[in-house]
Amino acid sequence: MKTHKFSINGVEFGSGKALIIAELGTSHGCDMVKASELINAAKEAGADCIKFQMVFADEILHPATGNVILPGGSIALYERFKKLELPLSFFAELKEKVEKAGLIFLCTPFGLQSARAINSLKPQCIKIASPELNYTGLLSEVARYNLPIFLSSGVSKLRDIEYALILLLQSGNFSSSICLLHCVTSYPAPETEYNLRVMRNLSKIFGIPVGISDHSLDPELVPALAGALGAAAIEKHFCLSQSEAGLDDPIALPPDQFAKMVKAVRAAEINGEENTIAAMRQERGSELVEQVLGDGIKRLAPSEAANYMRTNRSIRALKPIEKGVIIQKDMIACLRSEKNLRPGLSPEWEQSVIGRRAAQFIPSGEGIRFEDI
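Structure (tokenized):
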């Protein structure tokens, strides 16, 4: 597939050369020694870029969220996120270690505090995760940094992507590149739901480079086919062992499997689309390969459909709001809903909610809907 190219510090990716991103997230467990081991192992396995997450619990969830089912089981996620909060100095050291290894440092913010902290480190690029694709306040903030942006598009519809890209391109003095990462927000994600042909269509529709953020378990199937189709970037979770305690470790690739993935991607880029698909059909079966490639129409994947407007951001009450009270800025926030709290209005309505009178009692943590104001 003919894709647009994506540039970081003058180095171009896309059209036969994907940036390989090892998503370490918070798998370091706040331990710099383990983080160093992860960085070195990822480099050895063939990663070009190392990605982390800067977590502040109050930027992501309300304390009333309760337990969330993750790959490792049911977890009190707000409390776990609180334990993963780290000072800026920790990330400064991570960046130094990554760049000393000759790799690109990448970090995901989840709100304005973490975005500003990451930007203060003067990174080469920044990443917006799928649940924050509709977080208009964060997009407007990051757009002003004039950095290349990776934008994941899991659990989103075509109109959501369009709205986010328009906002990024119109906010402030924005002249950096955007790389959209097609994604299925399910852990693990079924390979057969990846619909990889949508990358070509998204690239044509929006005129930007497109890659893949892969949450499937197979180290080769989705990444190699994505590489053959011209993915500008391929992101995959990385761990030292799937039995470790990191939030994403159960669905991450250990070093030998990650190296296998990189080898398959590089071979696919050399062999090209036609030869790679033909070889995959012979090895894995035509029916499976065709399911992975899909029809190219952007839609919610079956495994992520129930998460729509739950893992995404919506406007929530930070405290109980009594009927008749004028809603003030400090009473609300744009947070994820997850399964235990009702979704609210999309973040684009935030300024319209402020100053309105509550039409009925709004419990703390619950989403604010049109009927509530």
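Residues 181 and 212 are 5 Å apart (CA to CA). The longest strand covers residues 19-25.
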